[in-house]
Amino acid sequence: MKTKLFILILCLFVTNLSCQTSEKNSERNQAVVKLTFQAKGVVKEINLEKKKLKLDHEEIKGYMEAMTMDFYVNEKNLLENIKVGDKINFTLKHEAGIDTITEIRKIQ
Ligand SMILES: [Cu+2]
């Protein structure tokens, strides 16, 4: 738990630093770190009400190693066509330090 908090604070700090740098470069260049990743995982839990799911995901290249963790989805309906045990491809958007799943495609 403490490690997670530390990483979060570190992320905020780094984001802030990059913010200041890019503001010098260009005012139009908004400093929000925005990345998308494609990844694969297996659905472990679904929480429709909280718009989140637990995934056992494979390595997300350039972002994180394989692990089981919770993700939020941007649209509740992304969770309506999947069930626990499904293998999925998903798109993860990382923006301003927040990860959100924006697309889910079931692997047949
Ligand atoms: Cu992860």
Entry keywords:
single chain; 108 residues; alpha+beta; 5-stranded mixed beta barrel; 1 helix; binds copper (II) ion
Structure description:
The structure is a single chain. This protein is an alpha+beta fold and 108 residues long. The protein folds into 2 domains: 1-31; 32-106, Copper binding periplasmic protein CusF (OB fold (Dihydrolipoamide Acetyltransferase, E2P)). It has 1 helix and 5 strands; from the N terminus they run H-E-E-E-E-E. It has one helix at residues 2-25; strands at residues 34-47, 52-57, 67-73, 87-95, 98-106. A 5-stranded mixed β-barrel has the order 1-2-3-5-4. The structure holds copper (II) ion.
**Hetero compounds:** copper (II) ion
CATH class of the largest domain: Mainly Beta
How is the main sheet built?
A: 5 strands, mixed, barrel
Q: Which class of secondary structure composition applies to the elements?
A: alpha+beta
Oligomer description: single chain
The figure for the number of domains is 2
The residue-averaged pLDDT reads 83
Helix count equals 1
List the helices and strands and how they pair.
Elements: H1 2-25, E1 34-47, E2 52-57, E3 67-73, E4 87-95, E5 98-106
Parallel strand pairs: 3-5
Antiparallel strand pairs: 1-2, 1-4, 2-3, 4-5
Copper (II) ion (CU) binds next to strand 3.
At a glance:
This protein has 108 residues and is of the alpha+beta class. It has two domains: 31 residues; 75 residues, Beta Barrel (OB fold (Dihydrolipoamide Acetyltransferase, E2P)). Helices cover 22% and strands 42% of the residues.
